[in-house]
Amino acid sequence: MNIVCLDMEGVITPEIWIQFSEVSGIPELRRTTRDEPDYNKLMQFRMDILREHGLGLKEIQDVIAKIDPLPGAKEFLDALRAETQVIILSDTFEQFAKPLLQKLGWPTIFCNSLEVDEKGMLTGVHMRCEKSKLTTVRGLQSIGFETIAAGDSFNDLEMILASKAGFLFRTTEQIKKDYPQLSAFETYDDLLTAIRKAL
Length: 199
What we know:
globular
């Protein structure tokens, strides 16, 4: 039995931190896992900047409420879910994902959670497990699933490489150059066609 594992931000939704950077006017918050492979380091960097500017969870959630999925993402997910099981594997947080999941028709997501103090400031992250994307793919494989994975960033590479078929989607030129063995797509139609062939 097959199961498709998709990254969320950059693949089916805009990058939340980039959107928040634009609204808040803080360019440093544009850094994502495309720029910084060490996720813990990246999140500490983000939390430090938020604290400096007195910004907390509410301000981020207010921006997220106005974000829509990428054009064509819901139709892509609907077509895929009509043919096979799909799980979104994301390093985002429950507190961020919910409004976007509603707009996508409530697909299944495995993600992390934020630690927030009484003032609403981000104080830490609770990671679901270590190397969550790779660990989840390995777990699914251990119970009889064959995984097909797609993502756009450094933190997606392990799950892509560990799957029976893996694809890059709207990734960077550097990642394409570093992983020439991986097919890279720019449109949902092309990605859907590739996944269907792998099923």
